[in-house]
């Protein structure tokens, strides 16, 4: 695995190349686990599956450990992820997953005509009855007036509810979700 990401450490810096290689392997393992989880979610929601990871192309995925648990004897000195604590904050992911069920993200592989027709067929959270039109307008207003500037204005071209509903129902769901999570 170390041949996939060349080591660019300075031998005089005191960094151990073996430790760096092990850390790269741990990050790759974590990335594989995340990719596998996204794959399972896509299968469950009947969405198109994610592309194969670049590091796994040409390899048999059955031989790759996906448990994410490193050998304890090799990494006894550091902890990859902090343990759960009673004070840990848990995001309400179930609500977001319920909202996200209305459609798959726009694919660059699908023709633009299909993407536009998909968006105009009412596959958004308002037509599904998850959020009312009035609540969606309120959430969008709150997001654009209070939160969008924190994300460098990434929604600068989408300020209209109708435009968001037709061009990017997933962005509409994300904006409504973020705005609702920041509701005082």
UniProtKB/TrEMBL annotation:
Q: Which organism is it from?
A: Aspergillus oryzae (strain 3.042) (Yellow koji mold)
Its Gene Ontology cellular component terms are:
nucleus
Give the UniProt subcellular location, in the record's own words.
Nucleus
Where mainly located? nucleus
Family annotation (PANTHER family): FINGER DOMAIN PROTEIN, PUTATIVE-RELATED, ZN(II)2CYS6 TRANSCRIPTION FACTOR (EUROFUNG)
Q: What is this protein called?
A: Uncharacterized protein
Q: Where is this region: Disordered?
A: 56-88
Asked if the record carries the keyword Transmembrane, the reply is: no
Q: Name one GO molecular function term.
A: DNA-binding transcription factor activity, RNA polymerase II-specific
Q: Alphabetically list the UniProt keywords.
A: DNA-binding, Nucleus, Transcription, Transcription regulation, Zinc
């Amino acid at each position: 695995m170390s041949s996939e990401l060349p080591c660019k450490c300075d031998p005089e810096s005191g960094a151990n190349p073996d430790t760096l290689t092990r850390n790269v392997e741990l990050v790759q393992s974590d990335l594989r686990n995340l990719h596998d989880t996204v794959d399972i979610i896509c299968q469950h929601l009947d969405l198109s599956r994610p592309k194969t990871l670049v590091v796994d192309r040409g390899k048999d995925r059955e031989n790759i450990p996906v448990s994410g648990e490193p050998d304890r004897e090799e990494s006894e000195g550091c902890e990859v992820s902090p343990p759960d604590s009673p004070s840990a904050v848990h995001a309400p992911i179930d609500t977001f997953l319920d909202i996200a069920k209305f459609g798959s993200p726009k694919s660059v592989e699908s023709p633009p005509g299909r993407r536009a027709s998909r968006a105009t067929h009412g596959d958004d959270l308002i037509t599904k009855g998850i959020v009312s039109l009035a609540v969606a307008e309120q959430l969008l207003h709150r997001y654009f007036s209070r939160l969008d500037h924190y994300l460098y204005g990434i929604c600068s071209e989408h300020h209209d509810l109708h435009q968001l509903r037709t061009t990017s129902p997933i962005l509409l769901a994300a904006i409504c979700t973020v705005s609702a999570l920041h509701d005082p």
